[in-house]
């Protein structure tokens, strides 16, 4: 029986999409097809989720919460009578810090798993991208304030991609090992 991987992402600024695309590329190198699907444009039906061998969700955090598309997706996933195994990746700036890149160490990922009573076969938090120039004025001020509180960069010209390619590749490797 052929394994069917469904790879979804919820993104605001494109970082979760880039991470999902890298996961898909690494899986493709192993002969595993998994086309990334944007939850904002193509949310799946329960009937589309149920037959999958594995569901992969890459979900961005904004202002302390995973995006609404990811939360709605997980609510639908939990409603399945027999949900397929799940691999979960949280994309957030907190994951830029050592120890905050695991399901146990990342408060957003830990909260998401608890809220939906998930038992992912793989779970990781991967750093987001801090790009002040792309944010609207109000978002830039709020994010700078959060960065000041958490010891992050506040220079409004800062552009740092905290997503470690090795961490993304490790998620893909975990998925491959699961299959």
Write structural notes for this entry.
The strands form two sheets. Strands 1, 2, 3, 4, 5 and 6 form a six-stranded mixed β-sheet that branches. Strands 7-8 form a two-stranded antiparallel sheet. The mean pLDDT is about 95. It has helices spanning about 15-30, 45-50, 70-80, 105-115, 135-150, 165-179; strands spanning about 5-10, 35-40, 55-60, 65, 85-90, 120-125, 130, 160. The chain is globular and about 50 Å long. Strand 3 and strand 4 form a beta hairpin. It has two domains: about 5-130 and about 165-179, Flavodoxin domain (Rossmann fold); about 130-160, no CATH class. It contains six helices and eight strands, in the order βαβαββαβαββαβα. The longest helix is centred in the N-terminal third of the chain and has 15 residues, at about 15-30. Helices cover about 35% and strands about 20% of the residues.
């Amino acid at each position: 029986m052929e394994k069917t991987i469904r790879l979804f992402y919820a993104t605001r600024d494109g970082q979760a999409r880039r991470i999902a695309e890298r996961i898909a590329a690494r899986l493709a190198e192993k002969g595993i097809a998994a086309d990334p699907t944007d939850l904002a444009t193509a949310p799946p039906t329960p009937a589309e989720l149920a037959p999958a061998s594995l569901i992969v969700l890459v979900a961005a955090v904004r202002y302390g919460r995973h995006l609404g598309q990811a939360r709605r997706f997980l609510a639908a996933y939990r409603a399945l009578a027999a949900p397929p195994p799940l691999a979960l990746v949280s994309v957030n700036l907190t994951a830029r810090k050592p120890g905050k890149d695991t399901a146990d160490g990342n408060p957003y990922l830990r909260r998401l798993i608890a809220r939906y009573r998930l038992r992912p076969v793989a779970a990781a938090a991967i750093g987001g991208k801090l790009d002040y120039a792309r944010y609207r004025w109000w978002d830039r001020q709020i994010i700078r304030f959060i960065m000041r509180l958490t010891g992050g960069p506040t220079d409004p010209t800062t552009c740092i991609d905290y997503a470690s390619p090795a961490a993304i590749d490790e998620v893909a490797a975990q998925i491959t090992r699961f299959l």
